[in-house]
Amino acid sequence: MKAINVGLLGIGTVGGGTWTVLTRNQEEITRRAGRPIRITAVADRNLDLARGLVGDTVKLTDDAFALVKDPDIDIIVELIGGYTTARQLVLEAIANGKHVVTANKALLAVHGNEIFAAAQKQGVMVAFEAAVAGGIPIIKALREGLSANRIQWIAGIINGTTNFILSEMRDKGLSFDAALKAAQQLGYAEADPTFDIEGIDAAHKATLMASIAFGIPVQFDKAYVEGITQLQAKDIRYAEQLGYRIKLLGIAKRKANGVELRVHPTLIPGKRLIANVEGAMNAVLVQGDAVGATLYYGKGAGAEPTASSVIADLVDVTRLHTADKHHRVPHLAFQPDQLTDFPILPIEEVETAYYLRMRADDKPGVLADITRILADLGISIDAMLQKEPDEGEDQTDIVLLTHVAKEKAVNAAMAKIESLDTIAGKVTRIRLEELNG
């Protein structure tokens, strides 16, 4: 049977991994796909680098726009990243009748609705398993494996850089800055780690998972995003003493009045499997009404793990290449005309439990004032930790865990507590999720 010809845009880490795995496992992949899948053209600005990897076996060019118009190419694999040129290339490929495989979560989180609509109109597929959680097949699980379920919530450790940093802070007692430096030295963090440590990368991925889980358009601009830069080692230590670990989670929840879509540091009970995912690993916990909780764990980045997902998409597209375009698996799991405008809830409407840490004068009546403020706003306390003052100090840390409360009530309580003469500075607030189904 005629081979499927693939044009590869970008042959950096993931592109190189895709070439290596596809070459090494060619026979196995052909048996699965039903026909050979071959990279026949590569576009990269560094032609010497590309030639050093693939030799003279494929067509090489530094003109990506010429490649996406090449009539001999069936599938375009976009691995250059970014929002602008990548968007133009993907839309041009679609306009030229090419299927697209991409690992570009930022592109799809911001421009996904436009791209999916263009692909639907042209009758081509856009596959993006590698865009979320690297080698973990979470997109396929949500889109196909769990299609019988009404998905209730998703909680994921979906950024390996931040998970490594938090693991180092917990295991070694490092400050955030020291843990970030260690991550950069080991190659887990970029020289400019902003997208990772500020939660933006995780929010891109959470946005895509929420759309597939709940059948809503991609709405990255409405996600609440909070990174880990303000976390202190003492909070990780206090959480541990209370039986919790802190992870940066991407969370999407179906509620009666809308969808919660948020990324932030989160306390998780230490006994949960996902709380014990350490280092640069990823994990996604999905709660469905029929299946209950399912956990997906593995490498969230790297050349060959991500290539595994890219090639899985190539196999899927190859299998469905000649299928009736109206009966393919929809991009966002639900038929395009069945997506709903279910709103993304503002963070003030979110309901969860909270960890609150405050620096307070060590004298009678302070705790009573704090608990009275919380009670007046309908917030009940689940647990408390009060440290003895250091020698010579007249202030101490008070840590409270609340039961589930609405964010706007907690915001009001924090403002009132901070206004007390007996409280120094700001209240530290970290959200808490039991993740018990």
Describe this structure in words.
The chain has 437 residues and is an alpha/beta fold. The chain folds into three domains: 4-135 and 303-338, 3-Layer(aba) Sandwich (Rossmann fold), CATH 3.40.50.720; 138-299, Dihydrodipicolinate Reductase, domain 2; 351-432, Alpha-Beta Plaits (2-Layer Sandwich). The protein contains 15 helices and 17 strands. The strands form two sheets. Strands 7, 8, 9, 10, 11, 12, 13, 14, 15, 16 and 17 form an eleven-stranded mixed sheet that branches. Strands 3-2-1-4-5-6 form a six-stranded parallel sheet, with helices on both faces. Helix 6 runs parallel beside helix 11 (200-214).
- Determine Rg (CA atoms, Å): 24 Å
Number of helices: 15
CATH topology label of the largest domain: Rossmann fold
Low-pLDDT segments, ≥5 res: none
User: CATH superfamily name of the largest domain?
Assistant: NAD(P)-binding Rossmann-like Domain
Number of strands: 17
Largest sheet: 11 strands, mixed
Percent of sequence in beta strands? 25-35%
Helix content: 25-40%
Number of domains: 3
Average pLDDT figure: 94
The level 1 CATH classification of the largest domain is: Alpha Beta
Shape: elongated
Decide which structural class fits the backbone.
Answer: alpha/beta
Defining traits:
437 residues; alpha/beta; Rossmann fold; Dihydrodipicolinate Reductase, domain 2; Alpha-Beta Plaits; 3 domains; 6-stranded parallel sheet; 15 helices
Q: Would you summarize the structure shown here?
A:
With 437 residues, this protein is an alpha/beta fold. Helices cover 37% and strands 26% of the residues.
